[in-house]
Specification:
Pfam families: CS_DNAAF11_C (PF23602), LRR_9 (PF14580). It comes from Chironomus riparius. Helix content is about 25%, strand content about 15%. It is α+β, with helices and mostly antiparallel strands. It has 2 domains: about 180 residues, Leucine-rich repeat, LRR (right-handed beta-alpha superhelix) (Alpha-Beta Horseshoe), CATH 3.80.10; about 80 residues, Immunoglobulin-like (Sandwich), CATH 2.60.40.790.
């Protein structure tokens, strides 16, 4: 329960078996409501604002309490702080991490009444200064809010100013930190919305080569086929991999990250295959090349002839082989390779 801006100890009366209670770095100003924690052995109240030291007497009913930490509280500055506490809580064995000896307690018992009177006087003085501090800090906070600045400049001005060590200012610091974190999250979300979207093709339609997953690979250009061996992570689930083979490029999506490679020659997409190794996890994609001379073949006595189209007659049956290489006679009319 540390670092939670707790201002009051309460609602712990049903924790009968609680042995260790950590309330460090909170805004507690008084020790109270712990008498029902019958099994309490260790209590940590480090870096709180306990100025009413006589409130430790409420721990006398916690007969199993052996360790108490009050380091960093205003009451520890009282001259007779330690002598008073070790007598006020006779079952205590360690105070602020230091062992309480029998001789130390015996010596402190002699001046207990005088120490208690002095503690009460110091508490009264502290309470007066504390009330003044509350008003002073409240005025500082209000004046800071009334400054004619935007939220970001107000926040910067707040972090640059000197502040007092008190519960109100600790609460204000926590509120400003929460506001700063919220603004950072908004900036992060906006950045995510504007995240990089990869461009897969150039303006003329030529596919780019991309490796967003940053995977190693080997690519071999054989006479009749392409082979791509992508070194996918060994323990990556195959359902997170998507393979898309097109006539002039191959695209593999690995955990929503795109690997794309452009191909110089077109491939027969209906005969492509992809296999994944069960040992290494690598993905092998085999893509047979498309041979232009075998694209359209109609045999007729072993000779190839261009088809003559006669628009003024009815369509005749196909005779000979379509010579696709001589469709465009003028090379200047052939568009550049994309």
């Amino acid at each position: 329960m540390q670092s939670n801006l707790i201002e009051k100890i309460e609602n712990l009366n049903k924790l009968k078996k609680l042995e260790y209670l950590n309330l460090a770095i909170n805004n507690i100003e008084k020790i109270e409501n712990l008498s029902q924690c019958e099994s309490l052995q260790k209590l940590d109240l480090t870096l709180n604002f306990i100025g009413e030291l006589t409130s430790v007497e409420s721990l006398q009913s916690n007969i199993h309490l052996e360790e108490l930490f009050l380091t960093g509280n205003p009451s520890t500055d009282y001259p007779c702080y330690r002598d008073y506490v070790i007598v006020a809580i006779p079952q205590l064995k360690h105070l602020d991490g230091k062992e309480v000896t029998r001789s130390e307690r015996f010596k402190a018992q002699k001046n207990f009444d005088e120490n208690r009177r002095q503690i009460i006087q110091l508490q009264a003085q502290y309470q007066i200064s504390r009330d003044e501090q509350k008003l002073r800090v409240q005025n500082e906070i209000e004046s800071m809010e009334n400054v004619d600045l935007d939220d970001e400049e107000k926040l910067k001005e707040f972090w640059n100013m000197k502040t007092e060590h008190c519960p109100e200012m600790r609460k204000e610091i926590a509120e400003k930190s929460r506001l700063a974190n919220r603004n950072n999250k908004v900036d992060i979300n906006e950045h995510k919305k504007d995240k990089f979207i990869p461009k897969l093709f150039n303006d003329s339609g030529r596919p780019y080569c991309l490796n967003l997953p940053k995977l190693d690979f080997t690519f071999s250009d054989e006479i009749d086929r392409y082979e791509l061996n992508l070194h996918v992570y060994k323990f990556l689930d195959t359902s997170l991999i998507d393979v898309d083979v097109q006539p002039n490029y191959v695209r593999i999506t690995v955990k929503r990250k795109i690997f794309q490679m452009a191909l110089n020659d077109e491939v027969r997409i209906d005969e492509c295959s992809s296999k994944r190794s069960q040992i290494t996890g690598h993905l092998l994609i085999v893509m047979p090349k498309l041979k232009m001379e075998n694209a359209v073949t109609v045999k007729n006595d072993g000779k190839q002839k261009a088809i003559e189209m006669k628009p003024d007659k009815k369509c005749e049956k196909l005779k000979g082989t379509v010579d696709i290489r001589n469709i465009c006679v003028d090379e200047s009319e052939v568009p550049p390779l994309i």
